[in-house]
Design brief:
- By secondary structure, this protein is an alpha+beta fold.
- The chain has a four-stranded antiparallel β-sheet with strand order 2-3-1-4.
- It is elongated.
């Protein structure tokens, strides 16, 4: 085990020495990788923030249930209890038609028109606030209310929610496709770079083979080289994303304040940044493996 660890330590030391000797070339490759990864990273950061905004948005998903005129108080209370028992429901607010006409009168300029009405035209209503804005929370409550005989009409304030989640889903698909294409470009760049390194050290590799070096021992430094390229590019991408988000935070917050929102642009370093680093290191290793496989 100790010998195995020593071999890996020697391989890493050799790679770092080679990269240090050609630091400008190394920096250029890492910059290319970093900028390439930053583009889909921006998409993921934007989608991540939109997802957070959809969870914390003040205008909660709401269903308005207007009741039939003949429904008595006992049936209304039973309906309220049944709705409150649903796990998707956060709050149920009952507004009798008497309160509704008073609220309308308080907002209506020509109150005499309401006084002249022969009877109250407004129905009793339940205003149901859901636990979140996911469309999956709306459907079960909607289905339950549609089956109840006490309910005459439903108004579901969820069209905008479904549109928002559809846009987020589309954005995620586009970001994944974009990231996949740029990942292939990264593999091509790193693979060609590692292949050039193999050609540069071809004489050294032949000597190592003559003295009995194993295939794993020979190719291990190049696999680490691909991973280091990926790590360097990933760190640059994370730094670029952090600076971009930091520069955009104040303008975004000012825009949000104009819409009476407390939304803030954030960069989840451990979630998004960690995923980016893991992805770039993995892509670097795969690219080096492909280069060495083709060389064989």
């Amino acid at each position: 085990m100790k010998n195995w660890l020593n071999q890996h330590a020697l391989a890493i030391d050799l790679v770092l020495q080679r990269l240090k000797n050609h630091w400008l070339n190394t920096l250029t490759i890492c910059m290319v990788i970093g900028i390439t990864v930053t583009l889909p990273g921006l998409l993921f950061v934007a989608l991540d923030n939109l997802q957070d905004m959809s969870r914390t948005i003040k205008q909660d998903a709401q269903i308005s249930a207007f009741l039939k005129p003949a429904v008595n108080a006992n049936l209304i209370q039973r309906l309220i209890n049944d709705v409150e028992a649903l796990p998707q429901v956060k709050e149920v607010r009952y507004v009798p038609k008497e309160d509704a006409i008073k609220q309308l009168g308080a907002q209506f300029l020509q109150k005499d028109l309401l006084v002249d009405l022969p009877q109250n035209p407004l129905p009793d209503a339940l205003f149901i606030t859901l636990t979140d804005t996911q469309p999956a929370s709306v459907k079960p409550v909607q289905a339950m209310l549609q089956k109840r005989g006490e309910v005459e009409e439903l108004v579901i304030d969820s069209v905008w929610i479904e549109r928002l989640h559809a846009m987020l889903l589309l954005g995620k698909r586009i970001a994944i496709i974009f990231a996949s294409l740029l990942g292939i470009a990264m593999i091509t760049v790193i693979s060609n770079t590692v292949r050039m390194q193999v050609l540069t050290h071809e004489a050294e590799i032949e000597v190592s083979r003559l003295i009995g070096a194993t295939h794993s021992f020979i190719r291990r430094p190049f696999l680490y080289m691909g991973s280091v390229y990926g790590l360097g590019g990933g760190l640059i991408a994370v730094a670029l994303l952090f600076m971009i988000v930091w520069n955009l935070r104040q303008p975004v917050q000012l825009l949000a304040n104009n819409y009476q929102s407390n939304f803030q642009l954030v960069f989840h370093l451990f979630n998004v940044g960690g995923l980016m680093l893991l992805s770039t290191i993995t892509i670097g290793w795969i690219a080096a493996f492909i280069a060495l496989t083709q060389k064989r």
